[in-house]
Amino acid sequence: PQLNNPDLEEIPFKEVPELVDPMIKGHQSMTSLSEVDEGTTTRYVMEDQDIKTFLAIPVIVQGDFYGFVGFDNCTGEVRWSEEEVRTLKTITSNLAIAIERNQIENERKKLLNEKNRILESIGDGFFAVDNNFIVEYWNNQAEELLFTPKEKVLNQYLWNAFDKNLAQKSYQQYSKALKERIPLKFEDYYKPIGRWFDVNVYPSQNGISVFFKDITERKQAEEKLKELNQSLKVQAKELARSNEELKQFALVASHDLQEPLRMITSFLAQLERKYKDVLDEKGKKYIYFATDGARRMRQIILDLLDFSRVGRVDMEKSEVDIYEILENIQTLHHKIIDEKGARVTWGKMPVVFAARGPLQQLFQNLINNALKYHENDHQPEVKISSIETETHWGFSVKDNGIGIKEEYKEKIFNIFQRLHHKDEYSGTGVGLAICKKIIEMHGGEIWLESEEGKGSTFYFTIAK
Questions:
Q1: What is the pLDDT of residue 43?
Q2: Does residue 356 surpass a pLDDT of 90?
Q3: What is the DSSP letter of 423?
Q4: What is the pLDDT of residues 385-400, one digit of tens each?
């Protein structure tokens, strides 16, 4: 009647050490009422349930005290026989084995469920086969990538579901992994579904595990890249041929085209000298127009030569001190600077990695323009500054000249784009086109901020 007494259930072990302490150490617990001290919980529990003798054998599971199985004698104090003790030990031993097996099975199920959860959640297709190619596992991703439900392949011979003659590389690699017990990685194309796969094979004692992913888009991109590279090779050959023709043109322009102009200029000069007393003002004007036209034609040819040379000659890059570049320009052009009373100033300048010759031509063109395009009654002022960013050096060339209208800010960088009549300002309209080409050759950009009548600022960058 006391078995279901709530006051006697779930008593903490520490309150009944006489019964529990031996079992925690792995020993049996055999106690009679007369052996238990007065006033202890153990005494109270035994008296309240009319227990005269107590025998308990611990259940030890994987080295830990898991619980106990015991007998109570309520008729009198007795000593349990060896046979009775052995019987109880057999029961507890079998119980411990059963509990341990149950724990192992639960852990195995837990690990299996975890493995299945992982294999079903990964982005790769996965399957496992035994040594005879019998499919043991086939995840959801494998179903989608190979368009084959697991019901069709599980516990079946793999090559009944897939034609090994159409997947020879996979068949050979799987067979090699099974035979040599080595991991393998390869790519294969399965024609029936028109897909490329990246495959990783891992051997085990009982078979192989295969992870694979669809790389069709990447392979198609690689194929397009090959086609593009081939096209670029063809274009490169055409460009090389075109450059060679341009080089030949430059040679012709530097000699053959200039020779007739020199001859024209020479004969006009002789004509003017020999018949100056005979020619009237109109005739002298005609000779002047012809001579001026020949001179401007020669300058156009020279500017074209300069434009064509950018990027083809003097392109060896090194460390260039911009301060030295500006000092050289000021020295070379001191005459025109002094004549115009111009002020050319600059702040701290960096050392950049660039082609020295083109870079000097760049600054020279911008400074020349700043000195050229200004009102005659104004003193030209040119200010040059620099800034540094993470990837580029930035420069600005600011002047107080005539400025440029908004609609011409982009056009001025086009070759032969002139904004003024030749009688107002000299030039052929090639200088800024050369500047743009030099800057693009150095991985930079050039742009302009200007207001008509209030000067211009040219900004440009050079990659570090």
A1: 92
A2: no
A3: T
A4: 999 999 999 999 999 8
Pairwise CA distance, residues 308 & 322, whole Å = 24
Three-state secondary structure call for residue 146: helix
Is 213 in contact with 125 (CB distance < 8 Å)? Answer: yes
Tally of CA atoms within 13 A in the half-sphere of 394 that contains its CB: 9
> In whole angstroms, what separates CA 393 from the centre of its chain?
25
Nearest to 190 by CA among 223, 219, 168, 210: 168
Tens of pLDDT, residues 395-424: 999 998 888 777 666 667 765 444 444 444
Global pTM reads 0.41
Partners of residue 450 on adjacent β-strands: 456
Of the candidates 377, 352, 378, 379, the one whose C-alpha atom is nearest the C-alpha of residue 462 is: 352
CA–CA separation, 323 and 326 (whole Å) = 5
d(Cα 399, Cα 249) in Å, to the nearest integer? 37
Letter for the amino acid at 16? Answer: V
Chain-centroid distance of CA 124 in Å reads: 22
Percent of the chain with pLDDT over 90: 42
CA angle 115, 117, 121 (to 5 degrees): 120
